[in-house]
Give the backbone structure.
Amino acid sequence: MFRVGQKVVCISDFAKGRAVCPFVEFPARGSVYTVRSNVIGRTMSGEKEPGILLHEISNSLGPHGQEYSFCIKQFRPVVERKTDISIFTQMLTPKRANVRVPG
């Protein structure tokens, strides 16, 4: 499960879902979304599975009285790394070599 507020990236292509449910807005593969809620959703075959709702997408209620959700297997967490450019600035700074001058 993901936590509410967590950034996730879509790793699935929802082409089959778009064909079956053209009235549902689906996430785009490679796009980043924010988890709004964790739910137990239903697959197209009616099976229950862990799902998420996204802040960026709001769909109507489905036949079970629940907003269309997306299976958690179709997302992965976004790994946020703090950018530190110090290593690059060090590469640009010339190093002083200890050169001995004969004398």
Summary: The beta strands are 7-10, 32-42, 48-54, 70-71, 75-77. The longest strand covers residues 32-42. The chain has one domain: 7-92. The chain has a mean pLDDT of 85.
